[in-house]
Amino acid sequence: MQQDVDLTEEEIELIVPGGQKSIKEALKTVGNPRKALFKMRNLANLLAKQLGKEGGREGGREGGKEGVTD
């Protein structure tokens, strides 16, 4: 799964032998795991930048803890 290629039906079967249909469908949706991880990283970085900018605006959350519940 560290290669930069889409997963084949055979590889998915090796990962989830006779397994759950939902997991197999999720792996098919992901396609290329490496590209999917890079996309997720880029989206997380974008979100972090947007949240950082919001903290400096008037009316933004101070310290980022407002409304957070445990």
Could you provide a short overview of the structure?
The chain is mostly helical. The chain has helices spanning 9-15, 21-30, 33-55. The protein is built from three helices and no strands.
Tell me what you see in this structure.
The protein is mostly helical and 70 residues long. It has a domain at 9-55. Helix content is 57%, strand content 0%. The protein has 3 helices and no strands. The chain has helices at 9-15, 21-30, 33-55. The protein is elongated. It starts with 8 loop residues before the first helix and ends in a 15-residue tail after the last helix. The mean pLDDT is 81.
Show the helix and strand layout.
Layout: H1 9-15, H2 21-30, H3 33-55
- The chain-level structural class is mainly alpha
Estimate the mean pLDDT confidence.
81
- Helical residue percent? 55-70%
Helix count, DSSP H or I runs of 4 or more residues: 3
> Which H/E pattern describes the elements?
HHH
Silhouette: elongated
**How can the largest sheet be summarized?**
none
- How many distinct beta strands? 0
Distance between the termini: 35 Å
What is the radius of gyration computed over CA atoms, rounded to a whole number of angstroms? 19 Å
The low-confidence runs, each spanning 5 or more residues with pLDDT under 50, are none
- How much of the sequence lies in strands comes to under 5%
